[in-house]
Amino acid sequence: MDSLKSQKNLPLFAIALIMAAFAMGTACVSRQPIVLGLAGSFSGRDSALGISGRNAAELFVRQLNQAGGLGHRMVVLQTRDFASDESKTVGADRELLDLGAVAIVGHFTSASAVAALDFANRERIVLVCPTASAASLGGKRDFLFRTIMSSVGDAIAIAADLAATGRKRLLVIEARENKPYAETYTQSLAKSVQLVDDIGFDALADIDYGRIARARADAILIIANPIDTGSIAQELRLHKVAEPLYLSGFATTNSADLLASGGEALEGAWFVHQMVESQPALGPLIESYRSVYGVAPDSAAIETWDAMCLVKIVLEAGGLDRRSFYERICKVRSFQGSADLISLDDFGDATRPLYIFQIRDGKIQFSGRTG
Amino acid sequence: MRKRLSAGLSLNLFLVGSVIVSGVLALVAMTWQTGSAVRQHLSEELGDQSKSLARSVARNTSFFLESHFGALAALAAEPDERSLGTLASAFPAFSTLLVVDSTGKVRLSHGGDNEEGYDVSRREYYLGPVKSGQSYLSDSSISRRSYHPTVYLSQRVPQGIVAGELDLQSLSVYIAQLALKSEDLAAIADGRGTLVAHSDGSRVERSENLAWPPELKAAMFREDSAPKEMDFEGQRVLLSAAPVPGTRWMAIVAIPTAEGEHSVSRLRYSLLFAMSLIIALILGTSIVGLFYLASEFRGFAARMHAIASGDYELLPHEPVFSEFRSLARDFEHMAQKVKTRETGLSESLEHKEALIQEVHHRVKNNMQMVVSLLSLGQQQIDDPLARVHFERAIGRIDAMATVHEMLYYSGNLARLRFDDYLRSLALALVDPSCLRIESEVLVLDMDRAIPGGLIANELITNAIKHSGKDRAVEIRLCLAIEGRPEEGMAMARLEVADNGRGFEEGLDPEHSGTLGLRLVLSLIQQLRGSWELSNDCGAHWTIRFPL
User: Fold this and answer.
1) Does the N terminus or the C terminus of chain B have fewer Cβ atoms within 10 A?
2) Residue in A closest to B126 by C-alpha
3) Which residue on chain A is closest to B104 by alpha carbon?
4) Which residues from A are below 8 Å from B122, CB to CB?
5) What is the DSSP string of A289-336?
């Protein structure tokens, strides 16, 4: 009789054992880390954005994991450098995809974001761009989401200031490697301002300062990275081109490099930016970033931090694989960034306040908000 | 025997199990301890190596920087195009050389982009020496010339500052030339933790940062900092750091511990394997030994059993263990001795039995002779009373002779079936048609059978004599066992009853003058028994005596 009872209980025992094994297996699977990708240029001409962005993202993930991760799962940040070469962006993204990334933070320049967009749409992996602000990237239902506003606003603000100061003739000096970004400015400005010349360059030595001087513009807009912007400003001064300077948002992503590079040649330069680096709300971030990296975070780092905040919200909402990440990020309409509340429209494009700055006495001074 | 063997087996199993468990625990503990000790030793050795190497890197980096600072200092005396060119040739690590005036304008520039006339007053390499008045080593920044990471050495001079942009590749080349194993890492980090040299130059190119928390940086940036086991660049390493003298830079040497861990693991596994093998050998030997030992004892037990069963023809047995050989010989010797003694005893017993039988036979014959003589003598006596006494005596002797006869013929020299004896006795005295016997099987020794027989003989004879009916009286004999024989508390009950006229009213057998009754009571007393007499349709004697 006892052996009969044992035989009857055996299937139940086997089922219980299988269920326990399944539960354990599920638990093991669920404790695997969440892989997040970060793609950018950490070397070369565009490295200023990428380095700061990478440092901010790594700090964010480290702090997140120290606080217990997400649902007891650690986050692993996999980074790939495409060394300021847009032809390598897809390869870098492919590697991140193969590593199991649920989403990719990056790319940091508009040109590299444009280069990666087809791949992202095809592979249905979300790109969360912290700093790519070209107009051509917005207004589409795709897999690209931005926590930075389109630079069309910058152009509009520049046009407004030009109008307010009676400057009608604008000369543009643009770095050709980031064409989508530059076009955001030129195409918008062309609607309200006379563009007397649009001088593109691949190398600084290409720039014909004589041509610039002969153009006799009322103002000059430089669309380049911080170092190149400073060097161009120095050259303009040396060539006695004294027109007021307007700077792009790209140039001001690293204000320390910009000021060091441009020196007094940047005095009076005017620009708009989507954040005020000195605002009190950034205090904790500035402190923790400085303690690790020895320097305050620049705009690129802060904007990447904003992107990581958005990623965290989506992961917490259950976006733990590529498909669910996309579904959940589509539902986000606003989120709290490092300092400001950032809104996202139906196309995943951000809306943020825009602030006016001017360089005076070797310092960047806040002048107010745009209308 | 089976239960004792099971206990022994259990004990064996317990002992074996204890040995196994103890052995395994000891093995694991010893292996772990050994592994830990080896690991500790390896860590200390690796730590010493890495610390020594880190200090060497830091010193050599300091020499390198000092030599280049010295070169800049030499430039201060003659800061012109020619001297810049000479310096650049002598110190190729300088990719750019600048002479900056006191207003922060570049006066002279050599190498890279021409920055003459540039305002560099806000650059670190200008502000540093201007503020400190000393040589200045900047943190890593991106070169506007090459967009590669770079550092500047600058020095205050009377005219302003002289600065040289250092090609960090040269530092990484120096690191790569160090005598490191391929898996070891060496690096130099600036004051912010950004790598300025690395055995993997691409990490410098990507401006990677140690990203250490401030307390770790402070702890490692000490001359006497101890090697620290930590995760570094995706692997577990033993990391040592040493400050580069005169700078905020830090030289780092990281030795992966994986190989050491593998070595320790291999050692542990080897130890485990070796000790497992040894334990298995010991265990196996013990089990085999125990098996043979148990087999030997089983053999000896079987021999004892055979001897106890009377089988003395033991097969030759050569024990496995030499210690048991003498025991085996002793067993055989014992068997032979027992056999000899048993044979002797058997023969002696047979002889004695034969003698006893002969004695019984002769006693019976002698008693028969006495009976015959008495019978002859009876024939010579005229007195009827005397003849009765003679007859009575003959009957008594005959009763005793019958006991010896029965003992002789039964083969049992000391005990006989008293029920059979009683029947035989009664049939000799009473006509079978007048005799009723109810008896249980009762075996008595000679010492009780003879008195019992004499009592029965007397009572039957009395019954016949005094019944008034001569031999036609009906005699009822009853022999039973009362009580609990299994507890040693049994009594034999002998009843002799007749249907005669019974005893006279008021007769007290104890005070009777007749020989027969006195004999009966004496015999009853000899048997330590008791009697009852009733006169109920005849005399009814009930005699009980203990068995």
Assistant:
1) N
2) A260
3) A263
4) 259-260, 263, 362
5) HHHHHSS---HHHHHHHHHHHHHHHHHHTT--SHHHHHHHHTT--EEE
Domain that holds residue A215: 152-273
B-chain residues near A228 (CB < 8 A)? 144
Residue B247 has pLDDT above 80, yes or no: yes
Same domain, A40 and A139: yes
A236 touches chain B (CB under 8 A): no
Instruction: Point out the least confidently predicted range of A241-255, B181-195, B305-319, B490-504.
Output: B305-319
Q: Tell me, yes or no, whether A94 lies in a domain.
A: yes
Same domain as A209, residue A183: yes
The Cα-based distances of A368 to A222, A270, A273, B109, B172 in angstroms read: 21, 12, 11, 40, 46
Read out DSSP for A219-265?
EEEEES-HHHHHHHHHHHHHTT----EEE-TTGGGSHHHHHHHHGGG
Q: Are residues A259 and A233 in the same domain?
A: yes
Tally the residues of chain A.
371
Residues A238 and A158 in one domain: yes
Q: What is the mean pLDDT of chain A?
A: 91
Residues whose CB falls within 8 Å of the CB of residue B67, separated by 6 or more in sequence, listed in order? B91
- For residues A321 and A236, membership in a common domain is answered with no
- The number of distinct structural domains making up chain A is 3
Q: Does the reported pTM lie above 0.90?
A: no
Residue B157, both tokens:
């001079």
With a CB-CB cutoff of 8 Å, which residues 174-203 of chain B face chain A?
Answer: 191-194
Using a CB–CB cutoff of 8 Å, tell me whether B114 touches chain A. no
pLDDT in tens, B154-209: 999 888 999 999 989 888 888 777 766 777 888 999 999 999 999 888 899 999 99
Put simply, whether B233 touches A (Cβ < 8 Å) is no
Whether complex ipTM tops 0.85: yes
- Residues of chain B neighbouring A204 (CB-CB closer than 8 A): 113
- Determine which of A38, A62, A227 to mutate to test the interface with B (most B C-beta atoms within 10 Å): A227
Q: Which domains does chain B have, with CATH numbers?
A: 1-284 (3.30.450.20), 312-410 (no CATH), 414-547 (3.30.565.10)
Q: Which two tokens stand for residue A310?
A: 């958005």
Smallest CA–CA distance, residue B104 to chain A, in Å, is: 9
Domain co-membership, A113 together with A141: yes
Statement to judge: residues A237 and A336 lie in one domain: no
Between A and B, how many CB-CB pairs are < 8 A? 85
The pLDDT mean for chain B works out to 85
Closest C-alpha among A34, A35, A128 to residue A79: A35
Query: Mean pLDDT across the stretch A219-227?
Result: 96
Residues of chain A with C-beta less than 8 angstroms from the C-beta of B148: 43
Note whether A131 and A269 are same-domain residues.
no
pLDDT in tens, B76-87: 777 888 888 899
Establish if B509 touches chain A: CB-CB under 8 angstroms.
no
With contacts defined as CB-CB under 8 Å, which chain B residues touch A290?
none
pLDDT digits (tens, 9 = 90+) for B6-30: 776 777 778 778 877 887 787 778 7
How confident is the model at residue A1, as a pLDDT?
Answer: 47
Two tokens, residue B506: 């008021």
